[in-house]
Amino acid sequence: MIRAFLLLGLVCPLPTWANPLDAYGFGARGMGLGGAMTALADDVSANYYNPAGLAAASGVQMDMGYTLVTPTLRLNDGDQGVDQSRGFQGGVRLSGALFGRKVGFSLGIHLPDERVSRVRALPERQPRWVLWDNRPQRIVITSSTAIELAEGLSVGAGVTYLANTRGALRLEGDVNLFDAEDTQLVSAVDAELASIRTANIGLSFQDGPWRIGAVWRQDFRLLLELDVDVVGRIVTDSENVVVPEGRFHLVSLNTNLFSPQQAYLGLAYAGPRWRLAFDLGWLDWSAFPTPTAEIDLDLELAPLEFALPLPADPLPPSFRDIWVPRLGLEWIAIPDDQLGLVLRTGYFYEPSPAPHQPARTNYVDTDKHGVSLGIEIQYMDGAGVLPRPLRWGLSAQYIHLAQRAYVKTDPADPVGDYRADGYSVGLTSTLSVLF
Fold this sequence. Notes:
The protein is 5% helix and 58% strand.
């Protein structure tokens, strides 16, 4: 019984909303252009930005990179210690022709190097950066394919792989009311990971210097279901049995990861030595589920009369849909075949989907402004070992989280009023080998 009540404090996990690609992008080029890649992506990053772009490329490309993002998120000027996001990003892209049509295939991965998943136990009232805290702690694997339908027009589709989690704990034996060392419980643990797949579909059209792209990403929810079942006797000693057949049963269901349905439209123009891209995205945050576990409890201690109070039902989060504009500029500073240089810059604005928190919930988030700079060096092997140039890109991103005040309607609220603000600094490096 004691273990069961201890577990009760661990079944309200802090959700992980969205994923690291939603938060920071994929690859050095994507970060450098502020994520304005819906019309431009034709490399491994097209797995995320727009799979239709794979049909616009040619040959084989292998990407290997690393991402490091350090957030500083504050409440009342106190840093909340949100973890860094860091890990490997890369993959392979194969593009060519099949039956007279351009086709492309790609496999991409984001692999954190610190942890692959994390669950935290926080009560509903505790303030948390709900869209940031666990957001990057996730493996993301994507695969995509594309085909050219007509000259300049291609369609692509991709699949993202994640896993649902279900766990069960069963305890059976005797619980001694007065001597904890005399308590004898045998435990059995069962855990299950069930793979789920989510889709994204894209279109790409090119006419001269103009490119238009559109992509739709399916929403996904990863569920964490915990089942705790404790059965046995409650005794004072081996002779005196207080409860001959006691039972405590707890079921907790929680959305452990949520990414909203998204639709992006992108437009790009290519000049002689520069490219300008604009994206506008719609994110369906109104479908955001409650980030607090729904708990069902059942306690049987006959002949004792003991009622176990149920936790209050969680309040609906009432998030809203948002529109996100992104702008990117790419300039070929040195168009040399042996040693070329490309400069990039980008900007995006992401309004917060979270409403004010005047009651007992404290789902903290603020409006975000992102500014990025990037370079890419292209090097052609003079010895001819590689038929195409090597590309090495490096991008830096700064995200400013505007200050937001949270005011409670109840003057006796245990949390009280507070302010939220912060910033995030990120670096991404990508090495591309083309064949």
